[in-house]
Specification:
Length: about 350
């Protein structure tokens, strides 16, 4: 069991030496989960795990910043957090800016957090899975309703107790490619009619996404250089092509739809710094990048998918496309121009 007082003292010492250290990185340095570090904060307030009720109240806060991340990609959108619909453990929130796919199977802990910064107090609601990893965070903005926030926190406040944090699960090992009926796999791939059927298709065959791409029909999946994502974003910004950026984790997928404008590199981070959308991507953690062509409801849907060295999905990029419409020609051209990883580079 974590001693919150001792952990908080250790964090203060660490923060004094590295004042810009983010909570996730600080937790790693201290050998604890981020949820435990947040719980150790004397100013944090534990919340009841009433996910549906909490999320349905966020719309009353006015404009907020929604943040969803994994270890290599941070996705931030700022706008109204409304239209939350939950069916059992699966939900969504579709708004002009904040667009979410919610998987409540993985939500375990929640806190209201107030931190002091150069611009004053920063208030947020933070949600974690059973491994203590953040699945989603909601930050108040200058235009948020602070009174409504305090009312929400008071309504769902819970006593702070010791957290039961489970060890991270290891990735299941892939079957050998030779063990898969490649001809049958490719035939079913070609017969798909909906891009949303792709994940269930892979699950039926017992293959990971990357293995599925390796086994894909000719011309339907190929590797590109990891740095291709920077080229994609810069060229999309240059021609003002509307795109879709998906990023997240086991408990939440967050989506940006629209153009990107301000693309910058700072160290190992590739950033999009726009007024309502920010993306921060650790380029040094991209182990594989794939362009894929999947059957959709109206022709092929083409995307760029990024993975780390453990096969975890970091981010996926699509062209903006309405249901029932074909892909934009400029999007197909952008992906076709990305530098292909030659076979000699793979070895």
């Amino acid at each position: 069991m974590t001693d919150f007082s001792q952990l908080w003292d250790r964090f203060q010492i660490l923060k004094a030496s590295q004042p810009k250290l983010r909570a996730r990185d600080a937790a790693d340095a201290l050998g604890v989960s981020e949820a435990e570090l947040v719980a150790a904060d004397p100013a944090s307030q534990a919340l009841q795990p009433h996910w549906n009720d909490i999320l349905s109240q966020i719309g009353h806060l006015g404009p907020v910043m929604a943040l969803t991340r994994n270890h290599a990609c941070v996705h931030e959108t700022t706008g109204d957090y409304r239209n939350v619909q939950i069916d059992g453990k699966i939900g969504l929130a579709i708004n002009p800016v904040i667009d979410l796919r919610i998987f409540l199977f993985h939500w375990q802990h929640a806190f209201a957090v107030t931190t002091a910064g150069a611009r004053g107090e920063q208030r947020s609601l933070q949600f974690f899975d059973r491994f203590g990893e953040a699945v989603h965070k909601i930050y108040l903005t200058a235009n948020s309703d602070v009174i409504a926030y305090h009312r929400l926190v008071e309504a769902f406040a819970a006593p702070k107790t010791a957290l039961r944090i489970e060890p991270l699960e290891t990735q299941a090992e892939e079957l050998d490619d030779e063990a898969i009926d490649k001809a049958g796999f490719q035939q079913e791939w070609r017969s798909l009619k909906d891009v949303h059927a792709f994940h269930p298709f892979l699950r039926r065959w017992g293959v990971s996404r990357q293995q599925g791409f390796r086994l894909a029909p000719e011309g339907q999946a190929w590797r590109v250089l990891p740095e291709a994502v920077e080229q994609l974003l810069r060229r999309a910004a240059h021609i003002e092509a509307p795109i879709m950026v998906f990023a997240g984790n086991r408990g939440m997928i967050q989506i940006h739809t629209g153009p990107v404008r301000n693309v910058q590199i700072v160290g190992n981070w590739l950033n999009v710094l726009d007024s309502h959308f920010n993306l921060h991507l650790r380029t040094d953690l991209i182990a594989e990048a794939w362009v894929t062509r999947k059957p959709g409801d109206h022709g092929v849907v083409t995307s760029l998918e990024l993975f780390d060295d453990q096969g975890l999905s970091l981010a996926t990029f699509f062209g903006e496309r309405k249901p029932g419409q074909a892909e934009r020609v400029e999007w197909i051209k952008l992906l076709g121009e990305l530098p292909v990883l030659e076979r000699a580079d793979v070895a």
